[in-house]
Amino acid sequence: MDKPISKSTQTRSRLRKALRWVLILGAVAALFLILRNLLKTRVEATDFQIAAIELGTIENTITASGLVVPAFEQQVISPISTSVKEVLLRSGDKVEKGDPMMLLDDEFIRLEYESLEDQYELKNNKITRLKYEYDKNIKDLDYENKIKNLQLSSLESQLADAQRLQEIGSATQEEVDQAKLNLEIAQLEKKKLENELAFSEQVLAGDKRNLELEARMEQKKLKELQRKLRETKVTAPRAGVITWISEDLGKTVNEGELLVRLADLGRYRVEASVSDRYAQYVKVGQPVRVRINRDDLTGFVAATLPAVENNTVSFIVELEQPDHKLLRPNMRVEVFLISDRREQALRLRNGPVFTGAARQNLFVVRGEEAIKTTARVGLVGIDYVELLETDLQKGDRVIISDMERFDHLERIQLQ
Fold first, then answer.
1. What is the mean pLDDT of residues 58-71?
2. Rounded CA gap, 365 and 396, in Å?
3. Residues 268 and 353 in one domain
4. Domain of 98: which CATH number?
5. Model confidence over 113-150: pLDDT tens digits?
6. How many of the other CB atoms lie within 10 Å of CB of 317?
7. Helix (H) or strand (E) holding 124
């Protein structure tokens, strides 16, 4: 027979059930709070870099290193083989065009110049003498030709007289024949004389021409020696700064050896190099940005060097402002090759949040929260990154600090 349960026992049973439900609800609440803390963290907003999304131009860039060098550097070489007599200036000195920089020993070249000058004068004397001989010979032959003409006229008269006398019986046939023979001989002698005159005119004129050419060649040599003699006083070919000068007095220098290196420090260019992985982007005319501190100078690739050294490709950058006040010789600068460009792109300032991934997690600020979203990265520039395939819009404020430690969160509470 069943025994009835007492009220105290029923009360205790109900309390145990209620306590069990309270414990279960407490455990659920605690778990909720733990998960909430895992998914949501309160952080000071000032701990982050925040930038606004905007529409603008974006340029895809390739980073290279560069060295600022003078746009123009001229080398002054020795005009002759000689020795350094005197050094008038030093490296670092500024010069104007025509300023003397160095003196070379000119004794040997001066003697050579004087000797050639004498030879040139002798050649001119020969030309003058040949001219007189030419005039004399031509005149003599011309006179002989005129005399021969007179002789022919006389012989022609004699032949005519002989023929008339023969007609009246006062001259024989032999006398007529002799007169004809004399006339024919005289005519041949005249032709010979005319031929000799023509030959002499050509030969003597050719000899004179040869001597004149020889004299002209010596005159050119004389001018060349005269130039070299002047250049033994080494002067600045243009205004600039001496970057190097041979300072060894008495040093023997060969013809063509470097004496002075002169640079124009008013205009500069950049010698740059980049990894050969990007060699396809290094083309003449390619736009370039050169960064000096926080200032950017624009330019373009003016020339590429064919040789690849240490897995790098070298190229020359011409600047649109080669005389910019920030440029200094031998200054190291950042060079950015612009490989692509897009207008009116959705862009965000470049920062540590971008890790190079094709798709990027970003935290957009909504009131007092930062909510995770994603975007595909497009062009990557010096200062901006293009955002594609995203729900972000112009004006949205996005955290650009390194967010790796918050990547597991969906929301961040900002204080």
1. 88
2. 7
3. yes
4. 2.40.50.100
5. 778 777 778 777 777 777 777 777 777 777 777 787 77
6. 26
7. helix 107-168
